[in-house]
Amino acid sequence: MSFKTVAPRLKERMLPFFGMSLLGVMLAALSVSIPAIQIIGLLVVVLLALVIFALPELGLVITSLGGRFNRVPFLETIDGPVYVAALSLSLTVFVMIMRRRFHALLSRAYLFACLLFLAVLAAGVMYSVSPSYGTTKLIEFAFYTLPLLVLALSMVTSRQHYVNFFLGLAVITFGLALLGIAGGVLSGGLANGRISALGGGPNVFGRFMVIGALSTLFLINCIKVRGFAVCGYIALAIYAIAAFYSGSRQAFIGFILALVMYGLLIWLKSSNKKRSRFLLTLGIVGALLVSIFTVIPVEKITGGTAWIRLTLLFQEDKGTSVDARFVFAEAAWYLFQQRWFTGWGTGSFARMYSEEIRYPHNIFLEVMCELGAIGLAAFLIVLAVAAFATVRLMISKKKSELSGMDVSLIATVITCFFFSLYAAQISGDLYDNRWVWLFGALLAGLPHALK
């Protein structure tokens, strides 16, 4: 390929990149409060923009993971790391929208459904009893969550793009797993506390471990490099240990449920020959997970905080966090009943119930109490598009038409989406549960990518 062929493409890409970087620098300067840190903050924005521009799948991974951490060096002073990540990402996406088309009908339908929900969210700010916090939630969704899914719909459009995305996800989450376990060993968190990494919180950390494990399972099935499968199984063991010692019951239970769902989907979409290979893989994974907890001394497991929190689920008193979530749910349901059609407005749960709690830790109840039946209908439309994509993936092609990688990719994306939806019923708000929207976008675009 000659320089004359490459130059026009390079020029076409560099102009929007420089324009996006310039705007990103200007907006980032407004997000940083300490002058001495401004230069570093701007460099972070430019570097992130460069990554997104050059490797959009990796940029998508970094930005989706990075929005929740609050102890990244030089970013502590920024009012939410989300704003630094969102600036360059949003501007990059807006340029991409002008230059690319969404060829897949499902991708367009999913984007329109999400824009409809954004419109309802924006309207909710106008009559919110807490307009300040409502505006914050609107900004987080409009300039972080929405650009993430738009980038996924516009750039992750082929099998290789999906492989790149899950490879980046596996590598970064594996690094977080090692950081969390190492930190737990050094601080005594394995026995007396809950591990996490970079200040993301144990529950979020646990979710990342499940998504990382699913990504690794997919890579084991699609990367045929000698020794890679062995390394992948070892990584799965590390993910399981990290998820357990995060003390996040939703993550540990979700880990098991996700593996079961992944296995069932593989089984349903595989031929008899591929099923035999899958049973072998399942046996290896099962034996590995069982062996983990036979190697670790019993007292290290049963005497730790993680085990105690897990066993509380089988007792009448299930612990403060579980009991509190029932209280939040009751409060949100009561608010919904009081104003069921329009809700109390975006961000109103924080004012009506607790400024400290802010949201009911259930995405459906959050939407219902703040946006009412109108918001719930808009959210259900988003889920309906993702559900239609799931049905289409499961019935559109015969088993003989799908390769082993295709089957694993279908199972991975569907499982990641439904795991994220499961986790959204227990913890987090619209922003924390951006994975629902992101994997919904990947799910909507997958039928087109497999053509």
UniProtKB/TrEMBL annotation:
Membrane topology listed for this record: Multi-pass membrane protein
Keywords recorded for this protein, A-Z: Ligase, Membrane, Transmembrane, Transmembrane helix
Location within or outside the cell: Membrane
GO CC term (a single one): membrane
MF terms in GO: ligase activity
Domain O-antigen ligase-related, chain residue ranges per copy: 235-380
Pfam families found in the cross-reference section: Wzy_C
Positions of transmembrane segments: 14-32, 39-62, 82-98, 110-129, 141-158, 165-184, 204-220, 227-245, 251-268, 280-298, 371-395, 407-428
Keyword Plastid: no
InterPro entries assigned to the protein according to its UniProt record, in alphabetical order: O-antigen_ligase-rel_domated, WaaL-like
Protein name: O-antigen ligase family protein
Gene source species: Aneurinibacillus thermoaerophilus
